[in-house]
Amino acid sequence: MRVEVDQPKCVASGQCVLAAPDVFDQDDDGIVVTLNDRPDTGLHDDVREAAALCPAAVISLVEK
Amino acid sequence: MTETVADTAAGLPGYPSPRAAGCPFDPPPALRPPHADRPVSRVRLWDGTQPWLITRHADLRTLLNDPRVSADSTRDGYPHRSASMQGSDPATQTFLSMDDPEHARLRRMVTSPFAIRKMEALRPSIQKIVDDLIDAMLAGPRPVDLVEAFALPVPSLVICALLGVPYEKHDFFQRNTRVIVRRTSSPEEVAAANTALVDYMDDLLGDKLAHPADDLLSTLATERVATGEMTRREAARMGNLLLAAGHETTANMIALGTVALLRNPDQLARLRDTEDPKAVAGAVEELLRYLNITHSGRRRVALEDIEIGGETIRAGEGLIFANDIANRDPDAFPGPDRLDLSRDARRHVAFGYGVHQCLGQPLARVELQVVYSTLYRRIPTLALDTPFEQLEFKHDGLVYGVYKLPVTW
Fold it and tell me: Which GO molecular function annotations are given, in alphabetical order (chain B) (predicted)?
């Protein structure tokens, strides 16, 4: 799985950080940054939940 | 023969509609599927207009992220809440009722303090506020109104510290905010309350420009107003919005949540007996899903024709998103009318959805986690001091809750 984020669209709700703190963080303005764009299998469910929770649909997952 | 909108108006449910007697936690039955005969159907507003009501969880998420759906309340067809909202001066708009890119530009000016890490750093000070208020309650007479003694002061103290507003002014801003969120206020009353609040915030920004401190208003003053990015009036309106949103909402969640938990003692026991922060966080999400204090619908207008649920919403038609009903959608939450603190309720839409989703949600979460994990542990015998049936619920409020909550222990 590869994680992509569209930072200009981020609205800083912080939901991704709560759902998958090992994969997502926020910069000083609260905007999403990825800590790890190829997370281990054990984190995939959390990452999918983060993508589903994001209110602005900023997170896309390339599954392979 | 094709029915016109006017022909069917008489049969449309009004919006808002009353809740069922004896069911103060459940959305109005007239608006809920399957009573509404189609998944997407019209409702009748105070001014006779007939916007669409979106009640399904999946539809709400799809449309609130659709760029063909606008939050701009100055557009024709926007379904206004009341005459006072319709009549409000467009120059007094906040980013809540703007579309991108203007919305994004203004919102990003105030996202920084609400980052998760900064909210976590606030947790100890929120815990102290909560503990001090409980100490004061326990030392005082019984019964006590939990709204005045606890539910309102907690978020007011927290948001005042974050913004840099002196808490001593709480009578002034709580009184004026109450006028604004009461559906029955006249347009003149709302305008006067708004002006009083924005004037006050404007003066405060002047003080912050002269003597900046470590708070959000000082940051707005020195980094946005002084640089010419925002006028002082715009910053005052934004500060006012954050102040009002920061205390009315959480205060109602605390009081209404306490009523719901006292009515569901098995769930209250689960919350009281857990030491697990994850269980507390999950309980907060479920209470947000179940209580739906923002029961007045998210309002939008279609910019283009949109097909949804077998209907065509035409460009220029109004849309109301009933997040309270979507949070009780059985396709999203099995057994939706049951308060179940063990369920995974994270996909609730209590904070809305799309780019306008609540800015302060990380703060609300930490406040509610601290409150719900502390209040019932420290006062395990907490009980209503009035029959449940006699509690007065805010049926007429933009934000739902209880007016007073007499409790004893």
Answer: heme binding; iron ion binding; monooxygenase activity; oxidoreductase activity, acting on paired donors, with incorporation or reduction of molecular oxygen
